[in-house]
Amino acid sequence: MLRFLTPRRALVLDLSGSTTRESATGWSTATDVDFVQLRLGHRWYRPIHDRIVQHVTVGASFARSVVEHTVTTVEGLEGKTAQQANSGGAYADLGAAWLVTPHLSLGAAWTADVSYKRASTDASGEGVQLLDQRVRSWNANAGSVSLRLNLYF
Predict the structure, then answer these.
(1) Which CATH number fits domain 2-151: 2.40.160, 2.30.29, 3.30.1600, 2.30.30?
(2) How many CB atoms lie within 10 A of CB 41?
(3) How many C-beta neighbours within 10 Å does residue 10 have?
(4) At CA 31, angle to CA 25 and CA 33, rounded to 5?
């Protein structure tokens, strides 16, 4: 979501998420995956041609993911794994958009980010703790390219 402060400057709010539920028979397995990401930023626009604008965005990002996996054998033995991760950092993107109409644009952007991540993994089998792992890491993404279709209200 964009909130224009001036014709060439906007605040950016991007909220994305996903959830996945999987199960299988035989050895009974179930996997639940939940992910949510929030990005807040500031975007600047610059016209480079008739109805074509360049944009630069910088901001902060926050994410959380939870993965739970359960396996039950034919004999009824059960094992569980739970992973949780939280991260926060900064991102920047550089892109351009063709303003097809005043309410529609098509474009592309290159995005890079750096983040600090705290993750934990716990595993147990038949009620016995098998693994208790904690990880802290810095992560850098040199870039990804996205194609964008934007609607303006």
Answers:
(1) 2.40.160
(2) 19
(3) 19
(4) 155
For 152, other C-beta atoms within 10 Å of its C-beta total 11
Q: What percent of the chain has pLDDT over 70?
A: 99
pLDDT of residue 71: 86
* Phi-psi sector, 16: left (phi>0), alpha (psi -120 to 50), beta: beta
**Three-class secondary structure assignment of 100-131:** EECCEEEEEEEEEEEEEEEEEEEEEECCEEEE
The per-residue pLDDT for range 52-101, each reduced to its tens digit, is 999 999 999 999 999 999 888 777 778 889 999 999 999 999 999 999 99
What ranges do the domains of the chain cover? 2-151
Average of pLDDT values for 116-131?
A: 88
Q: Which two tokens stand for residue 76?
A: 């009824």
Q: Yes or no: say if 122 and 91 are a contact pair by the CB < 8 Å rule.
A: no
Whole-number Å distance between alpha carbons of 52 and 69 = 47
Contact by Cβ (8 Å): 1, 8: no
